[in-house]
Design a protein that fits this description.
Blueprint lengths: L9 H22 L8 H15 L3 E2 L11 E5 L2 E3 L14 E10 L2 E10 L5 H18 L8 H13 L4 E2 L5 E3 L6 E5 L16 E4 L2 E3 L5 E3 L6 E3 L5 E3 L2 E5 L4 E3 L12
Antiparallel strand pairs: 1-4, 2-4, 3-12, 4-5, 6-10, 7-8, 9-14, 10-13, 11-12, 14-15
């Protein structure tokens, strides 16, 4: 057993399951809310109100690393860590990733979803779909005895088969009482390499996939990460539990339940 990776007990898993269920409800709410004309700050404020007042939970990102907001809002060429802004309005051609964490009774769930505006380019939609399916290719590798490299390899192979590139600077992570725990979950790699998975491990899988090259840079605000070539980037994220025989997606949304088991 890998001592630095926290194996969750049955009671802890039940609490994480509940946090994940609540976070899935946030995205369900956003499905009918997110539209062109809203500012990323409007979305942030709506999410904060919903988590605190409707779900009686805590937005875990707020106050973490001196961050003041409850989500990251990453539009088009923004790879990750886009900061909500009153002046940044969603446009009809945009794609946007909303990355949200929620804590309930001491345990944190972490998930992100892409929203594609009605006039977005078909190539933008394709990037979003491939990124989502790359995440699932990784998730489906999860079972006791599998290796972290199996996850990274499956994600990388799927994305690169479409000519896209995987951002290597950011990775998934263990999660529980802390937002970031061991292990690091890379979205590229080799089969059979890396940490062996065990029942009770919980971690995120959250590939960032670029339309062009994998090169990125951070803007002067110190948060916002963009593609160097200004081509589009997409991301999908779920929190995953290693079960006796495979995996359970703790942040699974209602709209995904008929597609994935």
């Amino acid at each position: 057993m890998n001592k630095s990776v926290n194996i969750k007990s049955a009671s802890e898993i039940e609490l994480m399951r509940n946090a994940g269920r609540l976070l899935a409800q946030v995205f369900h709410m956003l499905d009918s809310y997110v539209k062109p004309g809203l500012s990323t700050m409007d979305i942030n404020n709506k999410v904060e109100d919903f988590i605190v007042n409707d779900l009686n939970a805590r937005p875990a990102s707020k106050g973490q690393y001196d961050y003041q907001y409850v989500l990251n809002s990453s539009i088009n060429e923004v790879v990750c860590h886009g900061v909500p802004n009153t002046n940044q309005l969603l446009k009809i051609k945009d794609i946007i990733n909303l990355d949200i964490t929620l804590e309930k009774e001491g345990f944190i769930a972490d998930s992100s979803k892409m929203y594609v505006m009605s006039e977005a380019n078909p190539l933008a939609k394709k990037l979003v779909d491939v990124t989502y399916n790359a995440m699932w290719a990784g998730i489906k590798q999860v079972k006791p005895g599998a290796r972290l490299g199996d996850i990274g390899h499956a994600i990388q192979k799927h994305a690169e088969s479409y000519g896209y590139s995987i951002v290597k600077e950011y990775c998934g992570h263990g999660i529980g009482r802390e937002m970031h725990e061991e292990p690091h979950v890379l979205h590229y790699g080799s089969r059979g390499k890396g940490l062996k998975l065990e029942e009770g491990m919980v971690f995120t899988i959250e590939p960032m996939v670029n339309q062009g090259t994998a090169k990125i840079k951070t803007k002067k605000d110190g948060w916002t990460v963009i593609t160097r070539d200004r081509k589009l980037s997409a991301q999908s994220e779920h929190t995953i539990l290693v079960t006796t025989s495979g995996y359970e997606v703790l942040t699974l949304r209602e709209d995904e339940k008929h597609n994935h088991h």
